[in-house]
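Example with several molecule types.
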Amino acid sequence: MTEQSDNTEPQEPASFDEWLPTEPLEARDGWARVRMPIRKYYLQDAGAVQGGLIMTLADEAFWRAVMSLLPLGQRSATAELKVNFIRPARGEYIVAESRIVHKGGRLVVGDTEVRDDRGNLVAKALGTYIIIDLQGEPPE
Amino acid sequence: MTHPNPQPYEPASFAEMLGTENLDSGEGWARIRMPIRQRHLQSAGNVQGGVIVSLADDALAKALHTLLSPGQSTVTVELKVNFIATAREGELIAEGRIAHKGSTLSVGDATVTDGNGKIIAKGLGTWMLLQPKTPSDGQGKKTQS
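Resulting structure tokens for the full complex:
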């Protein structure tokens, strides 16, 4: 790919949000919902949304659920995420709903479900986030 | 948000969207590479976790495909990734190795490293093997259209 593209070539997205747009629907009290519109290039060979993208959306909803519980000055990062893929994701969009099941001083455990636009369960995730303060150290 | 060019961003495939390249592969293993671009970074400037998962998934799927017969395909049933370090620039390399190939389920592990060999993430996943659809199941010929 050339760095100097002329205007006939599509330019690659400048940011993650532009590249892989998701819409936050709601987030409060350790709970969040995020929607991802499906583009045709998200599909793998069998015509379903690629698994990594489903995990990206699950992670995004999980992160918003975590952040809804954190005070200003704390950030969080995914430490670990496990997903079971239940059925292929097709249709217009997928929605992830995440619920925090435990918040400790350093670790947060959350449960996320991803559904297609008909409400069918596509994937189920369980993961761990680590809380980081803005200096980069875990809080006391 | 202004965009200087008139064409929408529409990669031809998921691999092009992610920006991966195949490095090499052999019996039950594969390595792929992804140069880190601005679009891969989340708000803190690190490669977003799902991108790392996609790389691990892709390397493992390629590793498994080296063991398949013509017509067989696979789907990811389950994947777990531990994120060990952040990555901000340079490249990421994912190496997938199939630890077990059964008749229905296969298990593989993936390691994602940066260009210096530092481990960024480890993945372990399960794939289901899909057999090619055959018109006959042993009880005689069935013609479909």
